[in-house]
Amino acid sequence: MTTDTAATAEVDGASATQELDALIIGAGVAGLYQLHQLREQGLRVRAYDAASDVGGTWYWNRYPGARFDSEAYIYQYLFSEELYKDWSWSQRFPDQPEIERWMHYIADRLDLRRDIQFSTTVTSARFDEKRDRWIVRTDRGETIDTQFLVTCAGMLSAPLSEVFTGQDGFRGTLVHTSRWPHEGVDLDGKRVGVVGIGATGIQVIQTIAERVEHLTVFARTPQYVLPMKNPAFGPAEVDAYKERFIELRKTLPYTFTGFEYDFEHVWSDLTPQQRRDVLEEIYENGSLKLWLAGFAEMFFDEQVSEAVSEFVREKMRARLKDPRLCDVLIPRDYGFGTHRVPLETDYLEVYHRPNVELVGVRDNPIARIAPEGIVLSDGTVHELDVIILATGFDAGTGALTRIDIRGRGGRSLAADWGRDIRTTMGLMVHGYPNMLTTAVPLAPSAALCNMTTCLQQQTEWISDCIGYLRDQGKTVIEPTKDGEDAWVAHHDEAAAANLISRTTSWYLGSNVPGKPRRVLSYTGGVGTYREKCSEAAAAGYEGFEIR
């Protein structure tokens, strides 16, 4: 159990407000489960979150149209059959309010709120080498003295919101999708501009088009899109997926991406017509299956990539019809699946509405935001009442580099990752003892995974690791430099073999000026990653120094 008793230890001349065994940053999917596990071990543990309630990404991302694109019955905790079966989803891909209610259900069912401090931002964390403990400070003026620092801050939780000159001078309403106000934004009858057509921008655009007086979409990078089929779930459908609990628990952790489906077909084994038949069948599934369980060769073979890409382009052209729309919205310079693939519902048809205007900004970029609206480089002004920024995130690293984290010798994580993004299996960083991480680079959870699958695996590894140290009477664990070098080399070898590494996208941090270029997510597969993590633990945490 945790304790609220003030610690007596002096930290930089001030008494710590609390002394813990483990401090968790974040109360989303990873943080809630991590808190539950460490509390079950009897540790004094507490989670801190800047939000006013649980949910992580599902607390912050409440913009119009926000919803799952993983099937609800796999975006689940699998450690308890009772917990799984006592919640019923209403749709295959539920929306944000339902997802947030599910997160509340988890927190309440496991009685987690009593050990979570909300509306609190961790501002700094420093490793005290004399005492082998972390000194953590918050924006409330608190100082927490903890043995373990566990980061569950999320891979997409540091929004790129200050991106254009003049934002503060806009006289209308300007909002980033990941900081959507709880009270909502008045869009009815307004002139609205949406900047960005990634997965988030697409969800917003298709949802608000019929509500606003005029919608202007500013599109830079075209996206391959797949239509979502989202049937309602009645009692029969709910019973059917709940009956699969044991099957899903046995299979999800070992597929390539942590989804229920996996690659089944080999391109070279099929005739052209058979390949087309497979693509058509998977396309009609109305999910991410074409991306995550179509033909694995499309990630490695440029000819296969082009064939699959042209199949999706063909589907998009048939819906868009207008050559100008096709030119702005259909990718030509990268392959299907090497960027994040969004699911959509009648998104492309939105551009045929008389109140929707598509503005391509690839060759005529946004220069600034003026009081009256958005100004392009050629001087064109688009007057607007509301600007919605769907401009993405500093993925993988941003959540932690925005905290002043200092390891051995005062080294700065922001400075270290500013030079070279390195981790050991996405679970620890050399130079930062007893800091255990989830959803950071060089693990599948950085991008290429059904997130609950990967975050459960990482938090379980962390819990087992802390339990091992306690059983052995040890207090400190840190990856060795050689161990980290070996993982980085393995990660880069896997990444170099696929086409993802040859594209420009947030998967490589290319959307953040000055960010070191490296494929953020481990691309060797979720099942393979799990095996390698388990092997290291079984070998007495090979690649780590324990004392």
From TrEMBL:
- What's a Pfam family in this record? FMO-like
| Oxidoreductase found in the keyword field | yes
Per UniProt, which keywords does this protein have?
FAD, Flavoprotein, Monooxygenase, NADP, Oxidoreductase
Q: Give the required cofactors.
A: FAD
PANTHER family linked: L-ORNITHINE N(5)-MONOOXYGENASE-RELATED
- Family label: Belongs to the FAD-binding monooxygenase family.
Record protein name field? NAD(P)/FAD-dependent oxidoreductase
Origin organism is Pseudonocardia acidicola
